Amino acid sequence: xxxxxxxRYWNEGRQSQLLLERQGVVLGIGDDAAVVGMPPDKDAxxxxxxxxxxxxxxxxxxxxxxxxxxxxxxxxxxxxxxDIAAMGGVPRHALVSVSVPKAWEPARVRRLxxxxxxxxxxxxxxxxxxxxxxxxxxxxxxxTVTGTVEAGKAVRRAGAVPGDAVFATGAAxxxxxxxxxxLAAAAGGSGGLAALGGGTGATPPLWPPPAAKGGMAxxxxxxxRPAPSVRAARMLAARGTVTxxxxxxxxxxxEAWEIAEASGVTIALRESDxxxxxxxxxxxxxxxxxxxxxxxYGGEDYVLLGTMAAADAxxxxxxxxxxxxxxxxxxxxxAVGPGVDLIRDLDHVQAGGRRGAGYxxxxxxxxxxxxxxxxx
Length: 376
Description:
Elements: H1 3-11, H2 17-22, E1 25-27, E2 35-36, E3 47-57, H3 69-85, E4 90-100, H4 106-123, E5 126-134, E6 140-150, E7 165-168, H5 174-186, H6 216-224, H7 230-238, E8 242-247, H8 252-263, E9 266-270, H9 278-287, H10 291-297, E10 304-308, H11 310-322, E11 328-334, E12 339-344, H12 346-350, E13 362-365
Parallel strand pairs: 4-5, 9-12
Antiparallel strand pairs: 1-2, 3-6, 4-6, 7-10, 7-11, 8-10, 9-11, 12-13
């Protein structure tokens, strides 16, 4: 099967003409370049383009122990969609570049495209082209996504101001727990995250871990099939009170530091208000891991971390709740910065819920770390 036959095999007939027209596609896959017009939206007024690209490399981002081919395709597109959401935008089009080694036969790559197109269908993204090459050893998948946002309304990292509330659109740490579980299962209870050079390396003594096995599917799903917070981002951005946004790709701590540095502020997170998945916490307990390690430094959750006017935070939370979407108010923005602090109720926890007369929260500096390809 030559290059062009493979492209047709992987892409032909995947998306409806209605979806393509809705995203302004004039000419899609099959020529030297795609042709798109600005997607029709009579209510949006003038729009600006958003552009994002992410690359997934076999043995760096995935392997057979952690991901099925369908999951790779889904996640590669979802990571880009999350970047568009983090700007308050709407994802529109995707360009897919894949470098394929001999070990990846066409049917296996087609399964990867199955997952990618499933994600595209879920979020209304038109796949309009890309590139296909051979690779000497490992599969490399790079996806570029376009999006749109109302002119002048893109939400940046640099807008947080003292007094803002800090919020998240979901629980962090689940994807890291899911990766740990998959690696532990593949290794028969040994190796863990240390095999990829990250995390604690702790592994459960038994597999599946007795206390957490009922919730294991949710953790694996969080790692393999993340769900970007596009709808929540659009609803929040429409309120006009969100001052910064970032998606949690490299860890909650890393993203908080990015906002803090870009805005010149301190992000103060309250440990007691950080959302925790029950299945993640139970699994961490079985593994002898502090759940906070995965929450702060795990990454790849693709929930949103942001700041907004404190006076509007509760109303925004109520609006999202009515739509069935989570939002957690997890801290506040302070003037002196940049930095990220964690406010811990250690006395409260140790006293079983009873605060002594001398009670005061403990403030700790949050390490500036998360996933970094070059160890910086």
